[in-house]
């Protein structure tokens, strides 16, 4: 055992009454990062002296949160954490969690909103939708398939994926022409996706239907992989270049809130609402 050193200050110094919780979390993280972890490794990772770390490890062993190998003395995560993880995985339903977020988007912008998700076989499905409050608005139905290349939800997910994954998906689908603005070549679609990555959101600029513009932002699943997308859709005379950045900010906040349910940290700053909209309006032949 190395020489004991003074314990580090409480990790969350806002309230010293929670020092014990902070230390236990630090201990568990130390075990997770180095498992099988020695006492010295856990103490160093948590910022505690070895005698203090050992006391916490004893308590965590009693509750099956960590395990100690009787032969090596090394520590690993215990079965109780696995049991908690199994329970937590089923407790967070992203579709249910997205419901209030969709309602808020309708309240803010008055347009049709939807949540789409990546399904097996490379399908993109509408998981939930809310109609707009205006007389003229897009119709979105749960269970409908969305096009990858001609919708804001499809392009938002493609732009958020690793490029190799999105390229493989693009080459596996038919890039059908719905309007004169539809992107039916791989090169044009890839250029549009790069614009989406730069600005932080995608635009369906009358590519699926003349007179309809949509804005989309992707959201990650519990593994941190792009799997969902929020969108706001409406007539082009309301979905102006001035309105779109503000809508994109609202979508980014909704996506971030959905991701926080899995404990994910934000990926990037929200799109700025004062930046001019860049888009490729038409196919370049």
TrEMBL record:
Spell out the coiled coil positions from the record.
Answer: none
- Give the residue range of the signal peptide: none
The membrane spanning regions, by residue number, are none
Positions of the UniProt region annotated as Disordered: 263-285
- Annotated ranges, domain IclR-ED: 80-264
Q: Which InterPro entries match?
A: GAF-like_dom_sf, HTH_MetabolicPath_Reg, Tscrpt_reg_IclR_C, Tscrpt_reg_IclR_N, WH-like_DNA-bd_sf, WH_DNA-bd_sf
| Record's protein name | Transcriptional regulator, IclR family
